[in-house]
Specification:
The protein is mainly β. It has strands at about 5, 10, 15-25, 30-40, 45-50, 55-60, 65-70, 75-80, 90-95, 105, 110-115. A hairpin with a 6-residue loop joins strand 4 (about 30-40) and strand 5.
Length: about 120
């Protein structure tokens, strides 16, 4: 599975961005897709996941501000980020886990939130 993430950029605090992750195969066939992020000097952390059945889960730090969704017809998963904070600054990575539990990563996309 190849994953192409895009949509990052520079935004002021309180602003919004939408990240997209285009997969090379049907996102509905994948077990789980998700977004992770890694800030400078910190470990990579889970941001949000969506299962093949459509269930979602979020990190406590983004719950209520970020929304993960998918568009099966476009084999794409999105991360809508609202109310961005400087602490959200990080490289965001798209992740996919297949039904045989193989994990794939996309290249990162940088999100910078200025105060």
């Amino acid at each position: 599975v190849q994953l192409q993430a895009y949509g990052g950029g520079l935004v002021q605090a309180g602003g919004s961005l939408r990240l997209s992750c285009a997969a090379s195969e049907s996102v509905a066939s994948l077990n789980v897709m998700g977004w992770y992020r890694q800030a400078p000097g910190k470990q990579r952390e889970l941001v949000a996941i969506i299962t093949g059945g459509g269930s979602t889960n979020y990190a406590a730090s983004v719950k209520g501000r970020f929304t993960i969704s998918r568009e099966n017809a476009k084999n794409t998963v999105y991360l809508q980020m609202n109310g961005l904070k400087p602490d959200d600054t990080a490289v965001y990575y798209c992740n996919a886990i297949t039904r045989i539990f193989t994990t794939y990563w996309g290249q990162g996309t940088l999100v910078t939130v200025s105060s």
